[in-house]
């Protein structure tokens, strides 16, 4: 059953049925990657949609990783 099909009251039982072993977590990431790849990258009429989503994610993560450095430089006076 997909997470979107689960009701709020059934959430605890749905979580109990998940496989939280390292191989289960790796399998979940693999399935997610395969779904993304087949939906956006491996298509007949390819576009820039999937690649631009990956690029946008990279830009957001880079900004989050360097935020403390940017925040420190923001208060510095340049003269």
TrEMBL record:
Major subcellular site: mitochondrion
Keywords: Acetylation, ATP synthesis, CF(0), Hydrogen ion transport, Ion transport, Membrane, Mitochondrion, Mitochondrion inner membrane, Phosphoprotein, Transmembrane, Transmembrane helix, Transport
GO CC terms, sorted: mitochondrial inner membrane; proton-transporting ATP synthase complex
Transmembrane segment boundaries: 47-67
Description of how the protein assembles with itself and partners: Component of the ATP synthase complex composed at least of ATP5F1A/subunit alpha, ATP5F1B/subunit beta, ATP5MC1/subunit c (homooctomer), MT-ATP6/subunit a, MT-ATP8/subunit 8, ATP5ME/subunit e, ATP5MF/subunit f, ATP5MG/subunit g, ATP5MK/subunit k, ATP5MJ/subunit j, ATP5F1C/subunit gamma, ATP5F1D/subunit delta, ATP5F1E/subunit epsilon, ATP5PF/subunit F6, ATP5PB/subunit b, ATP5PD/subunit d, ATP5PO/subunit OSCP.
Similarity comment text for this entry: Belongs to the ATPase F chain family.
Protein's name according to its UniProt entry: ATP synthase F(0) complex subunit f, mitochondrial
Organism placement in taxonomy: Eukaryota, Metazoa, Chordata, Craniata, Vertebrata
Gene field: ATP5J2
């Amino acid at each position: 059953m997909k997470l979107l099909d689960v009701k709020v009251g059934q959430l605890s039982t749905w979580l109990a049925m998940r496989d939280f072993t390292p191989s289960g977590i790796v399998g979940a990431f693999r399935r997610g990657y395969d779904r993304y790849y087949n939906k956006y990258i491996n298509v007949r009429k390819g576009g820039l949609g999937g690649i631009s989503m990956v690029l946008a994610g990279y830009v957001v993560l880079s900004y989050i990783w360097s935020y403390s450095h940017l925040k420190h430089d923001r208060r510095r006076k340049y003269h």
